[in-house]
## 1
Amino acid sequence: MKRNKTLRLALPRLINYLLFCGGAFLLGSGLALETRLPPGSRGGHGLSMLGMTRHEWGELHFYVGLAMAALVLLHLALHWGWLKNALKSATAKLGYVGLAIGLIIFLIPLILPITQK
């Protein structure tokens, strides 16, 4: 019984720690991509940081972002009971509005038309 309780407490802590570290990495790598490794058209051709080019950093940034999305889903699954209770409360409409806004923000880049100049 005690082992299950320890695991039940340790897993969310580990996930929160990984989410924090992943968020810090995404912030740092995003800033590095924008400021220290500009695209070649802005003079960044041939630059690298820690032996990785802008494209390699972008790829790492993308995959860490996917891992973060998976961790967020796991975090929500672990707190599903709390989430259900929160959406039953008097302020549930606000929660549903928040969920809808999040879904819209997620879907917009996927449904916007692609054009070529």
## 2
Amino acid sequence: MSTPVYIVDAFTNEKFCGNQAAVCLFGKNQSDQEYQRIAAEFNLSETAIPLPLNTDNFQTASKFSLRWFTPTNEVNLCGHATLATSHVLFNEIGNQHKKIYFETKSGQLDVEKVSEGCYQLNFPLYRLKSLKFPNVENLFADKFEEIDAPPFMFDIIKKLGLHEKFRGAVHNTDTKKCIIVLDGNTTKDELLEVPRCPDELMKLHPEGNFIKGVVVSFKPTDAVGQGFVDKNGKPYDYVSRYFAPWNGIPEDPATGSSHCVLAEFWSKYFEYGKQLYAFQCYPKRGAQFFVNPQGDRLGITGEAIVTMTSVYIVDAFTDEKFGGNQAAVCLFNEEKTPEEYQKIASEFNLPVTVFPIPVDVNDFRNAQTFSIRWFTPTNEIALCGHATLAAFHVIFHHERNYHNSLSFHTKSGPATVEKVSDGKYKINFPMYPLKSLKIGNLSNPLAETFDEVQAPDFMYDIVKHMNVESEFQGAVYCPDLRYVVVVLDENLTKNEFVDIDHRSNEMVKFDPKADYLQAIALCLKPKDAQKQDFVDKDGKAYDYATRFFCPWIGINEDRATGSSHCVLGALWREFVAKDELYAYQYYPGRGAQFLIKPSGERVEITGTALTIVVGKANF
């Protein structure tokens, strides 16, 4: 099945700003499970699924159903993905109507095309109640009915570091959105310093039955002096940030639905009927909204721009859709700047975006030598296995490169890839020397095999932080990649391995500059793989199992990490009497398999890949 897919930046007229949404134009209904897996694959704040209702095509219909999915669940209302959908229908598909209507779980919404790339959304406006906190004056009780705040609410405020600037809070029961109002003298830099702490927020309110989203907002007292103006110097009336880990979104770049409560609140503090100009502050992006509250409805006007009309997205180290690890593959014929590469990788928001460039001839079909660079959403990395597999799957399978073996130049030196069969490839990577780590007062049985070095003091703090002190059986360090492998008890079952409370998003604080660490792997060699459930779908036992955490490069936990086996292969060849090792990487809902063949200073990594999205980028 071939489905047109668009990725749109909403609430902006600049590429790589606003908020991204994927818009999938299926011709007919799919299962909820399929929609959810697709949304998880894109890994954007929302994926929108419109379907025509009153005709059988997207160009002539005026009424559509519309559903929105985050990477983890369906949501009842989403502004930026509605704007993105409307932009695709009007601007890309050429829908013939000036206004279109969407049937949603929040009722009927309509969107009118104002001008090219500019649209007005008609959304519901939600009533608010002010929250009463013990021993804190409720400044909003005169405008909103008062209810008692739940005990955890002030803990959330403190966890976000807002207690000193806190001026009050309001809540809506329909959307479960809570607005935390700050001192109007807060600067833009201070607003940007509010931390993302999704795991901590979830722990404070795990049920999510009172809050699904936290909005931090205020009305600047001196917008110009505080830095809250647009590129033309126009000041914003109010500003916000939005955190929704309960919907799988640590922080949202642009949240149209948040203004269904924000406009209700701030309209009480401006002249009645005034159109308000709002800014959502998000690191390196940001979004602008014109909001016009009228009665129980809200007009939201915003712009949108298509960044790409589908692209190569490949699942690597798997033979099943939505397994393994995703990578975006962009085929430019000439080098771009690192800044351009980084913006593109941030736009995709996949674990890694890869940029292969032909070197010996200027086309992908005939070239035999390539340069290759890998970028996470936050920075460039020196080596990546799954994105390499993805890139050469595209070059062999889609570009029809006729060579059986290709070489490529990387920041980690030369490497090769060989086509084994259609969709199956063998990568030849460097293998790195290891040192055993003496961590605190923990035993170090690996010192018998690898030269021992003393670990920094914070490594013991990390072992305790990940709750693996009692299962600890040693650790090794790879200075070249700055990887640490922590070896765990061989008797752990798969479920026990899966249930480790690693809290990886908090680990950056132990080595904030990443001088020593770039990633940590948890690993074990099962004593009885069959009994411990470390087997594949055909019952074949794995030689070792791993999980991989790299928050220092913007990936809390990676899904399938080929480069980790440049280290793991060097470790386990000392303890498994086989020429070829069968490895498994666990990740919730996915998982990946690797065939590893260490030899001297090199390692062959064999894996399969399949393409999920094919298209053309528009950068």
